[in-house]
Write a structure and sequence with these properties.
mainly alpha, 0% strand, rRNA-binding, Methane Monooxygenase Hydroxylase, Chain G, domain 1, elongated
């Protein structure tokens, strides 16, 4: 355990930031999962809204510094590509 006052403060700050970042990460994972489920489902009704919702959460998580900007870009790119592929398949058939 920390002995100095500054070290105790750092422990408290780290715990507080860990809990905050954990909630952002959980929300990010759940939103991306919902978007992927929407892409894999047969119904393409709310696909665009799910994609926009996921992109919003991804960018917000990135701006808070919870995830790296390249990871955010990769997630958005993959979701967008999968969505466009699904919409193309539906319109072709």
């Amino acid at each position: 355990m920390a002995n100095h006052r500054s070290a105790l403060k750092r422990v408290k700050q780290n715990k507080k930031r860990y809990l905050r970042n954990k909630s952002y990460r959980t929300r990010l994972k759940n939103t991306v999962k919902q978007a992927r489920l929407a892409i894999n489902s047969a119904d393409t009704q709310g696909l665009d809204q799910e994609l926009k919702k996921a992109q919003k959460i991804i960018h917000k998580t990135k701006s808070k510094g919870v995830i790296h900007k390249n990871k955010a870009a990769r997630l958005v790119s993959r979701l967008t590509r999968a969505t466009n592929k699904k919409l193309k398949e539906v319109s072709a058939s």
